């Protein structure tokens, strides 16, 4: 882990609009697995978050989802509103496959490695979501992967440092921020949008990335250095 600027409890930065759990779906759009837990619906009770995932949720494609650094996924109501306007449909909490729907968080601007207290759990931001064909198929929007990537507001994956229960309405408080200053959006811009100009800046967050994602980012950084 990289160094942290300990900020302690601060005024609430945002709140949880809903905590969402999967309804397992089948269909051609689910790909080779034949089923998916991307369709998530708001729970009407506190939900326990653990190091291995969200109790009551379902992960079907364990090759690409469900690692410790993907224990939970958060997305913003503001981004649901953006895509509702873009697509001419009404997206509800959970429709992006998120376990936590947040309001006022601007989660993609969070720093890689930033730590949040929500309910009695402590979560750590690990990186951005990478859109896939299952996501596009669930929304039934051809070209969504390209559009979502170009927009670049991905929400964040979270590791669970301290297990605990989270409920709708819980405040989100920042416990610490790494001093490298690298936002999730900037990491995504380098690795998925090809923003080579961000390479040296993003290099600062490498110690805070999970090993698999660190290798990908490091390769992008090295490529940018060789072509500079």
TrEMBL record:
One Pfam family named in its UniProt record: MOSC
Domain MOSC: 41-175
Molecular functions (GO terms): catalytic activity; molybdenum ion binding; pyridoxal phosphate binding
Signal peptide bounds: none
Chain segments annotated as coiled-coil in the UniProt record: none
PANTHER family on file: PROTEIN YIIM
Identification of the protein by name: MOSC domain-containing protein YiiM
């Amino acid at each position: 882990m990289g160094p942290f600027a300990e900020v302690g409890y601060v005024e609430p930065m945002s709140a949880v609009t809903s905590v969402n759990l999967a309804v397992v779906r089948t269909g051609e759009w689910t790909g080779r697995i034949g089923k998916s837990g991307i369709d998530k619906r708001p729970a009407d009770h506190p939900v326990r978050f653990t190091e291995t995932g969200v109790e009551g949720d379902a992960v079907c494609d364990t090759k690409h989802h469900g690692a410790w650094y993907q224990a939970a996924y958060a997305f913003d109501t503001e981004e649901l509103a953006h895509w509702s306007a873009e697509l001419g449909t009404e997206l509800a909490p959970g429709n992006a496959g998120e376990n936590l729907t947040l309001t006022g968080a601007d989660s993609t601007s969070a720093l890689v490695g930033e730590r949040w207290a929500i309910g009695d759990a402590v979560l750590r931001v690990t990186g951005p979501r990478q859109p896939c064909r299952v996501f596009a198929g669930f929304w039934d929007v051809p070209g969504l992967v390209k559009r979502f990537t170009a927009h670049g507001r991905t929400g964040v994956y979270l590791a669970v440092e301290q297990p605990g229960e989270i409920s709708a309405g819980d405040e989100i408080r920042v416990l610490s921020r790494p001093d490298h200053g690298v936002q999730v959006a900037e990491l995504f811009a380098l690795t998925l949008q090809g923003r080579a100009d961000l390479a040296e800046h993003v290099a600062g967050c490498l110690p805070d990335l999970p090993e698999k994602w660190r290798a990908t980012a490091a390769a992008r950084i090295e490529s940018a250095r060789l072509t500079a």
